[in-house]
Amino acid sequence: MIKIPDIPESVVVRHGAKAWPLALAGAGLLMTGSLLSWSGDPQVLGDLSISFNPGGLQIQALALALLAVVLLLAHKGPLTSLGQWADTALGLRALATWALLFMVMVVVAITIEAGGLINIDPGGWISLLGAVLLFAAARLVLPRETRDPAEAHLPGWSEILVIVVLMAAILFGTAYALGLTDAWEFVLFLVFVTGVVIAGIRAGLLSWLGHVTPRHRHVLTLAAFAAAFFFPFTQNGSDANMSIASQILIFGAAAMSLNIVVGLAGLLDLGYIAFLGAGAYVGATLSTSAFATIGWNPPFFVVVLLGACVSGTLGLIIGTPTLRVSGDYLAIVTLGFGEIFRLSMFNLDGNNGPDLTHGPNGIPAIPDLAFGSFNFGDTHNVLGIPLARFSNYYFLLLVVIAFIILVFSRLNNSRIGRGWVAIREDEKAAEAMGVNVFGLKILAFVVGAFLAGMAGTIKAHQDVSVTPDQYIFLESAFLLAAIVLGGMGTVAGVMIGAVILKLLPEKLRFFSDYRLLLFGLLLVLMMRFRPEGLVASKRRQLEFHEEDEGLAVRVEGEFAEEVKP
Amino acid sequence: MTMAAETVEASRSPGVPLLQADGVIMRFGGLTAVNNVSMTVNEGEILGLIGPNGAGKTTFFNCLTGLYKPTEGQVRLSGVALAPKPRAVVEAGMARTFQNIRLFANMTALENVMVGRYCRTSSGALTSILRGPKFKREEAETRARAQELLEFVGLGTSTDHLARNLPYGNQRRLEIARALATDPKLVLLDEPTAGMNPLETRQASDLIFKIRDTGLAVVVIEHDMRFIFNLCDRVLCLVRGETLVEGTPDEVQSDPRVIEAYIGTGTDTDEDAEDSP
């Protein structure tokens, strides 16, 4: 995205030979500095003041330097045999750029937090100098011949190993990021992660990964769920992060359901949160809360089904008349529906119509779920690790999400999914080929609403209370943003989008006044540079780049490869 | 496929009317695009629909296939009146291609044809989610039939190519394969050789003969006179939304009104008619 002007060729030719040792020296300096004390003030950014006992940020700097060394050795040196598969020069450049950004931000952060440049110890300056040197030298490293990593046929087990290691790294990274309480530390960790990921992309490793993962889709899914499953065990019984995590899962479940409507059927829905709300209100009114308005307490799985059905019926009711309009009109009608739902819940308080929802007060004091003797409010010990209230909900939601993903991918990969693609591609032609356009649109609407309703019933118990102001338009907009940001029509992308959109506001509380500004900016940038989202669905990518012949040929090859068993 | 083969054998009885359009009128506001056109297509017959630009050929096609609801008139297939809805028309057994190719550009060739099978398959949402034996069987059948049709139109090696990456002539073939996937009794081809070179045109007429030989009736809109007169059993000429002449290629070819409608003045042969300015 950010284009740093290239160095004139004459300079590169003249000094190209010195680049490699200089870069190595830079990485060495960065490492040495990171082992020394960075900050004179032990209070800021974790503790960075003890030499030879690096704090979190120093370990990240060490990791960046180590990666740079590996790339350098792969470029020219003992690891060349590995290097031929990756674009080491480009990867190094990206890594060095981000390492420099990282160090500059560290210096700025220490200066601001501790009050003055004086607090930066020699180690900090050495690291910064190393980063500058690495940055400059990396710009001079000449690119070399590379081979397409897709040709590298590694044994299957090593590919699986890569996936497992990756998932473990994500699990560890997330647990670490959630544990960071200091905003600066969190932002710097994000810079570190972004730098590593971008270096990976530039070096071509991510495209290799994109090649490997379809072959081991089941392993990937399993590993991802295993990582998610083990997450609560990394929290030592603390429920603070688990509360955020289970909020993310609720949000993710709703986003995945909306993904059926938006990503698969291509229908824009701006009032989707109402379906989550419908499920939540069913869950609340049928609970044993003293404020519940319906005195019937069926078993919870009946409530889940009822909530899903009520929500699905609402989907049908709103869909039948409105799906005859398309595009922008549909967006406006659904937006209206979302508001109608919220205002209805707001007004069903006994003054206007029946007292079903207690109006703006909502239904508080919803008790925790209990399956037999297993109460979700209690802390349970598993293998000596205490798992508290939110962990319990987290596991339940994980099952729900797994179900939603199953429905999503199976529908996507069937006659119905093909029909949806055809409708997105050319609605008239699809109709003329006998595809039940209207029926399939309704189906997407109803299935999406059904699944969101399911998640909603759990949300009611997890949140303890259900009020209309939880279901404002902004929430619908965020759901849609998660999908657009992550990648329409993908599973991984939407889950990543959901994590980003829920986690960032929690961790950047100081920024909360500006979060809409930040997201707006983020979306504008995404639309400009990567309209298909972080994780691109291949089909969507094609749709967004209709002129790109090269892409079409490339994707064609990938499709063909997937068909082969 | 065996089922399709049976219906093919049963329906091979030329002379029996398959499609009957009676007095079709299509008005857009004050403009009458199609004025009282009647057309009968017999089983196993290739009918050509010709006429100068703006004669209402495509509009007439759209009336037949339910994309437009005709202002007046009725369309019957095998004696049953067709509802003016595209899906009903396809299900009744009439499929079409488009003048400007309307493939699902970002789907592979095979997937395009598989979409054509949509109306002849029935796996619903629940079946798709549960993945029972019915789903697997139907999916395998759909795939096999689609592959078979691709081979039939000569695209057997392009299965995994994206529709938008296919050369122009092959896109036309793919559109025909997609139409055939709906198990039609009658296919309507809207300018199947537009933009093709002479070799591709000859291949196209071979393909149309091949389709006819499986027992299907074909209606072709075309501007290429030599193509039409070589191909068709009967030809219908539309001018300004009305039927000008209907008859065998020889009759239509020699009719001075047809020549006049196309180029304004009389010329000896259609070959000249094509080439002359």
Would you mind describing this structure in some detail?
The complex is a heterodimer of chains A (565) and B (277). Chain A has 22 helices and four strands. Chain A is mainly α. Chain A has helices spanning 9-35, 56-75, 80-83, 88-114, 122-140, 156-179, 183-202, 205-212, 217-230, 240-264, 273-285, 300-322, 328-347, 389-412, 415-425, 427-432, 437-463, 473-486, 491-507, 515-529, 538-544, 549-563; strands at 370-371, 374-375, 380-382, 385-387. Chain A folds into two domains: 9-226, no CATH class; 244-504, ABC transporter involved in vitamin B12 uptake, BtuC (Orthogonal Bundle), CATH 1.10.3470. The mean pLDDT of chain A is 85. Helix content of chain B is 42%, strand content 22%. Chain B contains twelve helices and ten strands. Chain B has helices at 2-11, 57-64, 86-92, 109-116, 125-130, 133-152, 168-180, 198-213, 225-231, 249-254, 256-263, 270-275; strands at residues 17-28, 31-42, 46-50, 72-77, 80-81, 94-96, 186-190, 217-221, 234-239, 242-247. Classes of the chains: A mainly alpha (565), B alpha/beta (277). Chains A and B meet through helix 14, helix 15, helix 16, helix 17 and helix 21 of A and helix 3, helix 4, helix 5 and helix 6 of B.
Q: How do the strands line up in the largest sheet of chain B?
A: 6-7-8-3-9-10
Roughly what percent helix of chain A?
A: 55-70%
The major beta sheet of chain A can be summarized as:
2 strands, antiparallel
Strand percentage of chain B, roughly? 15-25%
Sum up the overall morphology of chain B in one term.
Answer: globular
Instruction: Note the run of SSEs of chain B as H and E.
Output: HEEEHEEHEHHHHEHEHEEHHH
What distance lies between the first and last C-alpha atoms of chain A, to the nearest angstrom?
37 Å
